[in-house]
Amino acid sequence: MIAALTLPVALSTPGQELLLRRADLADLDALMTLLADDPISASRGDLANESDLPAYERALADLIGDPANEILLVVDAAEAVIATMQLTRIPGMARRGSTRLLVEAVRVSSALRSGGVGTAMMRWVTDVAAPATGSSIVQLTSDEARVDAHRFYERLGFVGSHRGFKYAVTAAS
């Protein structure tokens, strides 16, 4: 189970020591700010607007309450939230019953990108979180417009092996 992960843990980057920990409801503003700090997320409506607070609050509470999910934060020495990611453990039948660890919503503060934070996060996922959750596959999706992110993931050993599809469901009126 994801809840069995031992957290918080120290993450080392070339420039600083960081802490990876679970998010809680008090982190909501920082999470909204990280999502809005990304142009692709912002273009999808993640603008950190006060009016969206109830939707984000509900989503964070649901994720915190779900033992198959984790919302994780990276904080610096001043305890400022500088990065986030969501992990979801997915048991499956394919690949002889393999369990997958899905990584979603990876965001590093724009002021700190290319400084080793993302690398430290993803190395922890592949080296610690995946084995601890019984996962034999770590998978993620990345918007086709994120060319720099694709190079980053490939540098870490991820392979662009599949093509993803999405279907937007509109709410019934």
Structure description:
- This protein has helices at 28-36, 39-43, 53-65, 94-97, 117-132, 147-155; strands at 9-12, 17-22, 69-75, 81-90, 100-108, 137-140.
- The chain has six helices and six strands.
- The protein has a six-stranded mixed beta sheet with strand order 1-2-3-4-5-6, with helices on both faces.
- The longest helix has 16 residues, at 117-132.
- The protein is an alpha+beta fold.
- The protein has one domain: Aminopeptidase (3-Layer(aba) Sandwich).
Global shape: globular
**Could you say how many structural domains there are in total?**
1
Q: Give the low-confidence spans.
A: none
Task: Give the structural class.
Answer: alpha+beta
Mean pLDDT: 93
CATH-derived topology: Aminopeptidase
Round the Cα radius of gyration to an integer and report it.
16 Å
Taking the alpha carbons of the first and last residues, their distance comes to 37 Å
Oligomer: single chain
**Count of individual helical segments:** 6
State the share of residues found in helices, binned by percent.
25-40%
Give the spatial strand order of the biggest sheet: 1-2-3-4-5-6
- Give the topology string: H per helix, E per strand: EEHHHEEHEHEH
As a percent range, the share of strand residues is 15-25%
Q: In the CATH classification, which architecture applies?
A: 3-Layer(aba) Sandwich
What is the CATH C-level name? Alpha Beta
Q: Any idea what the CATH superfamily is called?
A: Gcn5-related N-acetyltransferase (GNAT)
Q: What is the count of β-strands?
A: 6
Largest sheet: 6 strands, mixed
